[in-house]
Amino acid sequence: MDRLHQLIILIYVTFIIFLFIQFGESSDQSKVYRQKRYLSFQNVSHFFIRLNFKANMVPWNQIFAQALGFRMNWDEPPDSFHPYRHLQRRDVFRNMEILLDRNGLDGFHCVRRAICEVNQIDEPRYIYFRILKMIFRQHSSDTAKWHEHTQEDCQISVNTCPFSILEVLPYTDL
Questions:
Q1: Which UniProt keywords are listed (predicted)?
Q2: Strand partners, 29
């Protein structure tokens, strides 16, 4: 008889637990939303970009090669910390223009040349070219200054800017 009472209590407790699980708040089928996360940089952040070019002197081996590296460094000013500030494409393009202008190149035409060249890639094979297509695609009308161009405008940009973003090595170990 004692064993029967234990079995009945076990079944009763299991049934109560099942009811709590089935009809409690934890089984609610509503969607759970996560809070949007933002990326912000602390004051006096340092940014750099490095571009490498390589030309093999002997076609059948890579030991004898000439290389050219172009590194751009810049520091964010101390008053630039704005939490939850969104990064816009037009700001990236404008900063690229300023950076290239300060290095003696025509920034507007170099950015436009990069856009024209990236638009000519139909099926990007390397991850580098996929990233370039994501960066330089037209997402809104804010970047119309760079994206609204004709074939003649692209040719002018190619002739004006000596720097081709497609000639940057997508990897440096080959």
A1: Membrane, Transmembrane, Transmembrane helix
A2: none
Asked if 146 and 112 count as a contact pair (C-beta separation under 8 A), the reply is yes
Segment 20-50, tens digit of pLDDT:
777 766 545 556 677 777 666 666 667 777 7
| Amino acid code (one letter) for 173 | D
**Look-up of token digits 């497609």:** 166
Kindly give, in sequence order, each residue whose CB lies less than 8 Å from that of residue 89, ignoring residues fewer than 6 positions away. 135, 139, 140, 142, 143
3-state SS string for 22-68: HHCHHHCCCCCCCCCCCCCCCCCCEEEEEEEEEEECCCCCCCCEEEE
- Does an H or E element contain 11, and which? helix 2-23
Q: What is the Cα–Cα distance from 92 to 39, expressed in whole angstroms? A: 15
pLDDT digits (tens, 9 = 90+) for 4-22: 878 888 888 888 887 777 7
DSSP SS3 for 13: helix
Instruction: Give the pLDDT confidence score for residue 140 in this predicted structure.
Output: 74
Q: What is the pTM of this model?
A: 0.51
Q: Which candidate, 4, 12, 80, places its Cα nearest to that of 42?
A: 80
User: What does the buried/exposed string (b/e) look like for 43-59 if buried means 16 or more CB atoms within 10 Å of the residue's CB?
Assistant: eeeeeeeeeeeeeeeee
Instruction: Name the CA radius of gyration of the chain, rounded.
Output: 29
Do residues 165 and 114 make contact, with C-beta atoms less than 8 angstroms apart? Answer: yes
157 φ, ψ (degrees, to nearest 5): -65, -40
